[in-house]
Amino acid sequence: MITVPVDMTCRRIRATGWRAGFIEFEFTVGDPLLTVELVMPPAAFEAFCTVQQAHVEWAPGVARATC
What we know:
By secondary structure, the protein is of the alpha+beta class. The chain contains one helix and four strands; from the N terminus they run E-E-E-H-E. The protein has one helix at residues 42-52, and strands at residues 11-19, 22-29, 35-40, 55-58. Strands 3-2-1-4 form a four-stranded mixed β-sheet. Strand 2 (22-29) and strand 3 form a beta hairpin. The radius of gyration is 13 Å and the shape is elongated. It starts with 10 loop residues before the first strand and ends in a 9-residue tail after the last strand.
C-alpha cells in the first residue's frame, strides 16, 4: 500500500448554505477525503473558524457571516 502524507495543518471551511438561521458548511482537514458536513449557529461558526484557523470559502449565492 502506498501512503501519501497529509498536511493536518491545512484546514478549509466551505459555507454551503443557511437553514433556519444556522450555517451549513463543509470542514476539511488536509485531504478532501477528510471532509465532514456541519451545521452551527452563526456565533459558533465564527468561533469555530477562529479556533481552526481555517481558510473560509463561501459558495456562490450564500450570504456571508462576519467570519
